[in-house]
């Protein structure tokens, strides 16, 4: 009698609890599988975006390298004394820290001959992060009180310097 | 009162009948053994192997069968002996022949075993002592009181030679019709199925435990993977935000490198056309429309250099002809009488041409098979 009662109790509990938990777990497995599929799709998307961003980063300049002195050096402006590089826009430090990417607008101005100007344009476009939006030869009058060579004239170049924040991405 | 159901003797391997003064055992391997006391016949070998024991309890004063144990324990037995007998009967299926159902009308059943003739008819069941030597005469004597037409069924393993066989339907002892009403210690449903139910319960519990453990391990694994991937999902949010910031700047970066080509090309074109220039300006237009992004080239001639159409038209044509990047050129309207040319370089078209050129170069560089 005890065996029967114990067996029956075990069997009943096993069937009731077992089937309840089984179906509950089955639903959980189905739900988790669905979430996993979504997560896999998300992961794939993340990988693609990451690859794209990594590739793009190669075209940009790292935050911290967008300093005037290093830019002048990298563009060879330290050798062209008559040209001046200046930032036209000021990005706040908070913005620089909070954003993944940002850009400065800049201007290069000064007296230069066509050969040096062409070389400068080449260098600017070849340097990471730089794009040119405006170039003008002889649009402005030369600065007063200085002597210039006859083949030199005013160059005005504007563009953007794209920067990525390596602490955020 | 529970329904009486037939019980086949086939479910018992060994049959033992206790008569008035003797006991007869029919083991499963055939033959029969006879002794004065059933305890001399039954040992552990039989007790544990599906033994059926049939006995006859006397009727009480009210005609009802007495306690079955009275067939085994008499008044002279000590309590210890009674307990020992009870213990030895524990695993034996006990059938009280006195509780047999009466037969149908016009039918007489006789069981000849263990030196008794046990018979039952429509009125009841009776027992007569006999011996293996005299049983046939006793049988004749017994049947004499029944009409000739009465069906007589004899259940015995004794030698029936010499018996007027035509007047009896002969059956072996194993064909004896038993029923659940005679089975005094018939196991209940709980007793019969107790062990299988316990085994089934334990097996089901183990199975359920195993299945649930497997499922839960699977869930655990899935959760870990999902957790791991959720980190990627959080990273994706960062990457998406970064990508959104980036996409605003993509158009600018896409055409990076074209300005130096355009400036050199236009400068060379004006030089080849021998055009006099006051100034030369290159400016990106449609900055926010990636598809219509273009470079607007403005060429300004010195005052009075090109006064009329005859001078302006050929020089314009020459500049356009000598340039590889300018798509179109026009004279900019001016009230002051300036001569200013405006040219357009669509960057999308230029990018297509560059790509075509690069693809061609790539094809040429491929090794010939």
Give descriptors for this structure.
heterodimer, A: 169 residues, alpha+beta, Alpha-Beta Plaits, 2 domains, 5-stranded mixed beta sheet, 4 helices, 5 strands, B: 369 residues, alpha/beta, Gyrase A, domain 2, 3 domains, 8 helices
Would you kindly provide a written description of the structure presented here, covering whatever features stand out?
The complex is a heterodimer of chains A (169) and B (369). Chain A has 169 residues and is of the alpha+beta class. Chain A contains four helices and five strands. In chain B, the strands form four sheets. A five-stranded mixed sheet of chain B has the order 4-3-2-5-6. A five-stranded mixed sheet of chain B has the order 9-8-7-10-11, covered by helices on one side. A four-stranded antiparallel sheet of chain B has the order 13-14-16-15. Chain B has three domains: 6-186, no CATH class; 188-249; 258-365, Gyrase A, domain 2, CATH 3.30.1360. Chain B has 369 residues and is of the alpha/beta class. At the A-B interface, helix 1, strand 3, helix 4 and strand 4 of A face helix 5, helix 6 and strand 13 of B.
